[in-house]
Each structure stands twice: as C-alpha cells, then as structure tokens.
Design goal:
Layout (H helix, E strand, L loop, with lengths): L1 E3 L2 E6 L2 E6 L7 E5 L4 H13 L10 H5 L11 H12 L4 E6 L6 E7 L2 E8 L6 H11 L8 E7 L2 E7 L4 E2 L5 H19 L9 E4 L5 E3 L2 H8 L15 H4 L4 H18 L4 E3 L8 E3 L4 E4 L5 E3 L2 H10 L5 H12 L6 H23 L2 H13 L4
Antiparallel strand pairs: 1-2, 2-3, 3-4, 5-6, 6-7, 7-9, 8-9, 10-14, 11-12, 11-16, 13-16, 14-15
Helix pairs in contact: 5-10, 8-11, 9-11, 11-12
C-alpha cells in the first residue's frame, strides 16, 4: 500500500485499486486495465478541486490515449424483457449500478430474491465467468451463482444471484483484522477446490482449461515484448518514456526466472485479485467473494496479493498458522512466495510506470528489490 498525499494505491492483475482518504470515510474505486482511464480522469478532477494533486509522469493527454472501449447503452425495456425470459414477470427495483468497466450492470429483485444482470457487447464476455461461477458456487465457495446467460441482439448477458454485504475495505482496520482468520480459511478452500479434470496453466477459458501448457509459458507470455492488440502493446517504450527502469525490471525478471521453478509444478485455482475490495462482509462474517482474474497455478499468488493489500495485518504469519493447525505442509514456502511476489510485482511496476504514478512505482520497486535481503 502506498500513501502519496492522501491517495492509496493497490495493484492487482491487470488493474489498480485506489482511494481518496477522507476525514470520516474512504471511498475507493476499482478500475480494470485497459478500460480504467475515464473513471480515473473524472476522479482526478475532483481530487484537484480538493487541492490533492496526483504526481504524474508524462502528460494527461498521453494517458487519454489508453481509453479504448465504451460500454454499450442498454435500454431498461431490454433489461425487463431479458429478466422476464429467464425468471418470468414480476421483477422490481431494477436499478443501474455504478462500476463495471466491461459491462452495464443492473440489480433487481424477483420473488424476494436479489439478483444482478450484466450486459456486454464483447463476444464471449461471460463464458469464463459462467464456468468459474458454477465451479466455485457448486463447491461451497461464497461466490455469486450464475442462474442464466445468453445473447440478445448483439449483447451478451449474465444473471447472477446477488450476495449481500459491504466491501471489506469499507470496514475499519481493526474490523478487517478480525475477519482475517476467516478470510484465510476461505482462501485455503478456494485454492484447493476440485478442478474437475481441467488442464493447463494461466488464464481460464470457457472450456475450463488453462490457456498455457506450463506455468513458465504463462508468465513468460505476460512479460513478452510482443503484446500486439492488447493493453500492453508497445510497452517496451516505457523504458524510454516513463519511470520504468530497464536495469531494475531486468533484475526482478531475472529473480522471477530463478524462483519460478519453485512454482512450476503447483497447479491450483488462483483467484488472481484476492483483496478487500473483492470481499463482502456483513460486519460479523465474510458473505461473499467477487470478481476474479482466474488462472491455474501456484495458490501462493493469492497470498502474495492479499499480503500486499493488507500490509501491516501480519497476513503471512496468520496464513502459516492456519496451515499448521490444519495439518497442511507447504514445501518450499518461502521460495514459492518470493516467486509469487516477483510475478505480481513486475506487473505492478510497469502499470505504475505507464500511469505515471511515481510514488507507487518507487514503493513497489523498493519492496521487490529488498525481498532477497529478507
């Protein structure tokens, strides 16, 4: 976590979490790359009005070029018709929800049950989500269950059960600390679900298989120079146009190469974005786990993410205590965790560099460079 002039930054796979600290509350926003910039630009304007500027590297005009997608416009009549097709008439309190960088999202109630419906004009937008939703919810993980999906016109849609609760990030630090043991138990169950014969590593496709034959193939593809057509197209230019230091990147990449073989043979379910903003609580217990960047690989990747987002909460020791009490033995724990830190940390470095967030970059850089000294 980085505090730069009252602004907190957190990184996850392909995204960033950040919030504005207020005297009495802390509103936070989640923005998934590459569709985040309009949200950030709007919030930056309000920050400037409060006299809290963000330190940036490069011009705002350069960042505006990163906006590549606009969500579809969805008429409320279409929402009603789609709901009726799956659940019958009688939906009430149909309400558009904020957020959802890829989708138009609405909540509604039908026969006393809360639901969420999402629309996207991206082909296959919810295929992996549908698979993962059913995989997790059917095995007792508190993840929204998909109860309907399909296509109407050029729009794909998905209907999920709504899980009640507030983001864990909205609770005080002490309340978050009290939820940590329960959170660790849920994470352990999540990471050890039955994969039901799925194959491969890395991103999970609609069939349930991973996109790559090995873990090494996966992480090498993430940092390959050629990323044509993706958010990271021409990302090597950052070595010349941003604060991204080639020698630092190469050093951490070499450490990832050295440690990744400890992660290679471990293939489990990875949430990929496991932190307070994707966790719901009613104040007394964890009620739900939300959006994920799911992959197959070493489950310690999720621990690395949670530890960096809940810095100061003794996450790793709490995790190890739980594993010991449950009788789980994790071979090469320290080496695998370092491999996970390096894998996730490199993504953070280049993302912060691309956004011009020099303080966040420096914090992550120093943490990663100091790892082999610990």
């Amino acid at each position: 976590m980085v505090n730069t002039k009252g602004i907190y930054f957190f990184t996850g796979t392909g995204g960033v979490l950040w919030g504005i600290e207020e005297p009495h509350d802390k509103p936070y926003f989640y923005c998934s790359a590459p569709f985040f910039y309009e949200t950030i630009r709007d919030i930056m304007g309000s920050i400037r009005n409060r006299g809290k500027p963000i330190e940036r590297y490069g011009s705002e005009r350069e960042a505006e070029g990163m906006t590549e997608y606009e969500k579809p416009i969805v008429d409320i009549t279409l929402v009603e018709e789609t709901i009726s097709e799956h659940l019958g008439d009688g939906a009430i309190e149909i309400t558009p929800l904020q957020g959802g960088n890829l989708s138009r999202v609405f909540s509604f109630i039908h026969e006393g049950q809360g639901y969420v419906i999402k629309f996207s004009d991206l082909e296959g937008a919810y295929q992996s989500e549908i698979y993962v939703s059913n995989l997790l919810s059917s095995q007792g993980i508190p993840f929204p269950r998909c109860i309907g999906h399909g296509k109407t016109g050029n729009l794909e849609y998905s209907i999920l059960e709504k899980i009640e609760g507030r983001n864990l990030a909205d609770f005080s630090a002490e309340e978050q600390r009290r939820r940590l043991p329960e959170l660790i138990r849920i994470l352990t169950r999540l990471n050890h679900i039955d994969l039901r014969g799925a194959h491969g590593y890395g991103w999970i496709g609609a069939s349930g298989d991973g996109a790559f034959p090995t873990w090494k193939d996966y992480w090498e593809s993430v940092y390959a120079e050629d990323q044509t057509g993706s958010f990271w197209e021409n990302w090597y230019a950052l070595f010349h146009t941003s604060c991204l230091e080639k020698e630092v990147f190469d050093e951490i990449y070499s450490r990832l190469t050295a440690y990744s073989h400890y992660n290679d043979s471990h293939r489990y379910f990875i949430h990929g974005d496991f932190h307070q903003w994707n966790i719901l609580s009613d104040g007394s217990r964890i009620t739900g786990i939300l959006d994920c960047n799911c992959a197959y690989g070493d489950f310690l990747v999720d621990l690395a993410i949670l530890d960096r987002h809940m810095d100061g909460h003794n996450v790793v020791q709490t995790y190890q205590d739980h594993q010991a009490e449950a009788g789980f033995v994790i071979p090469d724990f320290n080496e695998r965790l370092k491999g996970a830190y390096y894998f996730k940390g490199l993504d953070g470095l280049r993302f912060y560099a691309k956004m011009g967030w020099t303080d966040a970059y420096a914090y992550t850089r120093n943490f990663l460079l100091g790892l082999d000294k610990s």
